[in-house]
Amino acid sequence: MKRRADFAVGDVFRAEREVDPFRSVYYASASGDFNPIHIDPSVAAAAGFRGVILQGMCTYAWAAEACVAYLGDPARLRRLKVRFSRPVQVGDVLTFEGRCTAIEGSTLRLELTARNQAGEEVLKGVTAEAVVPET
Fold this sequence. Notes:
By secondary structure, the chain is of the alpha+beta class. It is 26% helix and 35% strand.
């Protein structure tokens, strides 16, 4: 497991996730979010989308997953703040790129971007805070 000394300001990390055709159904089953725009293409189209859209909280969870992969332990992630800026569609490939921006004692501060394959931000203002003990 990574120790505090293993982290440095300027560290970067990256994760990529593709939205497969069943992801919003899987997430609906796990979360209970069965809003029809997430599972019914005709309802999503009537709402102005080109197909079903992924639940925002699934995108949020993927941002958390990217942080946790960098941190090495899910218990270290204490806060994650995001602003949803664009719907995520089936077939989108999301790239999460993060950077350690500060280390103050045992607290790490991270910033992330989340973009689709067209380079459009799907999350904005993503910041995270983690606690990594000195030992």
